[in-house]
């Protein structure tokens, strides 16, 4: 992350996105993704409006790299789970997973119900309990997360079932009833 000092360059980098040379546009997009949390609105706007899938993919990647700071873009990322390009769908799901608990409702309600097994797998893995410093006991997950993961343990795709069981186990022994 380049940090807040680099955020002054966002307007310049944004204008570089209109450069006729594809390489310049791609370099500008990569740089925007490295600015940090100040770049969320730029990356979100690009993800919403870009015509070319590689540009949308790069914007989603930038949001993924920001992790929880990208939370304001989670609804745009949710919409991109329906992108016509699988690569953009996958990267959007990975970005939602990187956001963490603020994206749990979307991962549980949209990701786990997606028609493509790979999105369901990423969503299941993304619903793993966040690690916290020296927990006294595992956190009880929100009921909608636990129910969603329980349903995912019966998915038609083995990869999704494995990911769901892995994530459920991160919540501790109280999830045993969900592992029927």
Can you count the beta strands? 0
Secondary structure class reads mainly alpha
Task: Please work out how many helical segments DSSP would assign.
Answer: 10
Mean pLDDT: 87
Oligomer: single chain
What is the radius of gyration computed over CA atoms, rounded to a whole number of angstroms? 18 Å
Q: Which descriptor suits the 3D outline?
A: elongated
Percent of residues in helices: 55-70%
How large a portion of the residues is in β-strands, by DSSP E? under 5%
Spans where pLDDT lies below 50 across 5 or more residues? none
Major sheet description: none
Terminal-residue CA separation: 43 Å
Query: Topology as H/E string?
Result: HHHHHHHHHH
Question: What can you see in these coordinates?
Answer:
- The structure is a single chain.
- This protein has ten helices and no strands.
- With 180 residues, it is mainly α.
- The chain has helices at 10-16, 22-35, 40-49, 53-66, 74-79, 86-99, 104-111, 117-126, 143-152, 158-169.
């Amino acid at each position: 992350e380049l940090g807040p000092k680099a955020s002054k360059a966002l307007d310049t980098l944004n204008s570089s996105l209109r450069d006729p040379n594809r390489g310049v546009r791609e370099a500008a997009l990569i740089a925007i993704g490295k600015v940090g949390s100040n770049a969320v609105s730029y990356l979100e706007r690009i993800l919403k409006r870009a015509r070319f899938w590689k540009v949308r993919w790069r914007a989603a990647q930038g949001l993924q790299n920001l992790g929880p700071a990208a939370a304001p873009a989670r609804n745009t990322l949710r919409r991109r789970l329906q992108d016509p390009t699988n690569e953009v769908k996958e990267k959007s799901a990975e970005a939602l997973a990187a956001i963490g608990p603020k994206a749990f409702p979307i991962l549980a309600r949209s990701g786990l119900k997606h028609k493509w097994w790979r999105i369901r797998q990423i969503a299941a893995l993304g619903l793993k309990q966040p690690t916290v410093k020296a927990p006294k006991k595992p956190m009880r997950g929100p009921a909608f997360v636990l129910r969603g993961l329980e349903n995912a343990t019966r998915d038609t795709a083995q990869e999704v079932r494995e990911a769901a069981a892995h994530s459920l186990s991160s919540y501790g022994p109280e999830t045993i009833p969900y592992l029927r």
